[in-house]
Design goal:
single chain; alpha+beta; four-stranded antiparallel sheet; EC 3.4.19.12; Papain-like_cys_pep_sf
Length: 276
């Protein structure tokens, strides 16, 4: 990365192969040439590895990575009694300290958006209907009001997520894959998202909103997964800011693309930039 951004360099690029070799080496072979990895695992590792290499710590301004991508949220968790109990037992349990709501402050480098489960029915032409969902619908998870149930093997929790600080660059991870014991399933739902003007104001509380001068984001990158969950291929759409032109890249192939084509894809990871 230093080589890529060095102002005294004669050429402002490095070979992809050199980059891949550095990743294989530094990730201690967690990511390899020969095996397809998951972009979200790679992105988490990459951002954390860069952050550490820049002597970053837990503080929000300790590296360019945290300054760019780190946001904050409060997570409210409450335990819920087992459904096997009768109302009286549930009531007495809910009065105990163990079942009170707990708030924890949690920094994030990306937000995980959950897709609604795809419908199981098939239309009269025996074709699967590809479901669609609006991005704003996915983001209501972070409005501090919507509760979502989380199960562990012996306990159930309800959680609410409230964003307290938005980063200059916001990464959204749209969770498409669920891993069961035997196989990986992919949710094919298409997410409808605007390329410009995504306003986060409606997901913030009034006091958090007052702390943010601006809450409008524009898309700058979009990673897509095509095909089967285990095989499949990835491609990325990237905005060249100086010209306003979008490009689609897959491995070494680069073509220009219209922004309206981007919104028809099975988006997997997106990067949004805050308007200054």
């Amino acid at each position: 990365m230093r080589k890529l951004w060095n102002p005294r360099n004669f050429k402002a690029h490095v070979s992809p192969h050199e980059m891949l070799q550095a990743v294989v080496l530094w990730s201690k072979k967690q990511f390899q040439f020969t095996k397809q990895g998951d972009p979200i695992d790679f992105l988490s590792w990459f951002l954390n590895a860069l952050h550490r290499a820049l002597n970053g710590n837990k503080k929000k301004d300790s590296s360019i990575i945290h300054k760019s991508f780190l946001g904050n949220m409060t997570i409210y968790t409450r335990k819920i009694p087992s459904t096997d109990l009768n109302d009286k037992e549930k009531k007495s349990l809910l009065a105990t300290p163990e079942y009170q709501e707990v708030a924890t402050d949690s920094p994030f480098l990306y937000l995980t958006c959950d897709l609604p489960p795809p419908p199981l029915f098939i239309d009269e032409f025996r074709e699967n209907i590809i479901p669609q969902v609006n991005l704003y619908q996915l983001l209501t998870k972070f409005n501090g009001q919507s509760e979502k149930e989380y199960k562990t093997y012996k306990e159930n929790f309800m959680k609410r997520f409230e964003i307290t600080r938005l980063p200059p660059f916001l990464i959204l991870y749209i969770k498409r894959f669920t891993k069961n014991t035997f196989y990986v399933e992919k949710n094919p739902t298409i997410v409808n998202f605007p390329v410009k003007n995504v306003d986060f104001a409606e997901f913030l509380t009034p006091e958090v909103n007052a702390r943010h001068k601006n809450t409008i984001y524009d898309l700058v990158a979009n990673i897509v997964h095509d095909g089967e969950p285990n095989k499949g291929t990835y491609r990325v759409h990237i905005l060249q800011k100086s010209t306003g032109q979008w490009y689609e890249m897959q491995d070494l192939h680069v073509t220009d693309i219209l922004p309206q084509m981007i919104t028809l894809t099975e988006a997997y990871i997106q990067v949004y930039e805050l308007r200054s």
